[in-house]
Amino acid sequence: MAVIASSPIQRVLLTQRILLIDPDATHRMSISRALSERGFDVVVAVDGRQGLEYFHAQPIDLVIVDRDLPDLSGLQVCEELSQRGSVEAVPVLVSGLGDDEVSSVRAFSAGAQDYLHKPMSADEICARIEHTLENQRLKQKLSEQNLHLNSELNEGQRELDGAYRRLKRQLLNQRALFDVSHQINSSIDVDEQINILLLTVMGQLVIEMAAIFVALDEEDPLTLHSTKGVSRSEIQSVHLEHEIAMLEHFEQAARPMNLKNPSAPVAMGPDLRRLVEMGFVMALPIPTGHRLGGVLLLGEKAGGRSLDDSDLMLLSSLLASTGIAMEKAALFRKLQESYIATIQSLMSAMEAKDTYTRGHTARVSRYAVAIAQAMGFSKEALEDVRLGATLHDIGKIGIHESILNKEGRLTSEELEIMKEHPALGDRILRNIPFLKRARKMVRHHHERWDGQGYPDGLKGEEISLGARIVTVADAFDAMTSKRTYSDGMGLEEAIWNLTSKVGTQFSEEVVTVFVQLLREGRVKLPSWVKD
User: From edge to edge, which strands make up the β-sheet containing 114-117?
Assistant: First the structure.
């Protein structure tokens, strides 16, 4: 089989190669010559198998195949090319005279891109082939453009997905920030504020270790407050106040500091180097007003990942909220200390009027706190009980000394005056916000379980648990204390009196706990109370 070759110069100029499969030598030569004259590189074959062999041996741009071949049919050749996915090679089927429309349909179904009828001049065939190739070039160009557009679309989709993930993360961070800030600012307990901060930072950012140093007051040094993921004893001896350069960096710039690569002029002192050796990589300031209220130290994120800008933004907001909450807590402490100082002055004035009250108040407070602890009261609720028990007789400041210090029993009129002291104590304390819960104990420590007490005649669980505790503690001390008109009871007699009045004067729950504490010796009693 002859292959029509071109000169070297012509071969350089050739851009497309055509495979012509035709058993008719005359027709084959005529078509191949015409195609070669138009700049095509033509490879010729006389039957289907030879044509397919040539096709697989070299790159072919277009196949012209006669329908009637001596071995395979032209339709079979088209189907073979189509089944092998040879989309670049466009088969053009040439048929003989007398073919009907059904044959052309079969040709297109087999994968042919055009269907030519004999007889047809070489010029006509070349024109149809050029038209077919031009269509193929346009399809290829459109396909490439489509691939390019799909690539750009996919890239845009990836960018959109990334932006969506970042936005979702920001929204989650903002929601977490809002919730945590609300929790932190809802508390006036610095311990609780810092615990919320550390748990949030470690959970939200997946930090493996953290520690926080705090200076509650302006004059205080930074001291270790809490740790997570690292032994407290390892950091206990670190003194950040020695790292003057670092503290100045925080106070002046109020920015995070990378401990592995601190910015000048921060000097790495021995304490700071020890923290780096432990695995801490970042230090962040907690601003409170115009001073440095604390320093948060962080280890690496899980997997050794670094904190990114989004993480640092979240941390900055959390620490700002914590600083505000700590400042608010400090102001509250100062206000509370001022109130307590005022109360202490009132108590001193009351004790000066009634010498019995001084020791009685301290003992009732001790008994009440012991009961509340045994009942599982929280730290805040215990403080309320301590204040309520300490202040339960504050209203006696408004009772005349002649009644308070009277030797012997009170008359009915004097007793009615004495009964005014719970309500009077409530009025004295009503403008002190943090004593709101303690005031209920002051007002209701003479209420009875059966509703026969005063001043409001409350019954059962209408009386707050704190007031029921103070009632039992107050009654026990009254039973066991010496008065000018009576000797105090012994321990067993007092216990009998408490238990015998359960359900009438006292709460069974409170008496049961207190009696157990007394029998186990877990309450400190005055020396005159004998077994």
Answer: 41-45, 17-21, 62-66, 90-95, 114-117
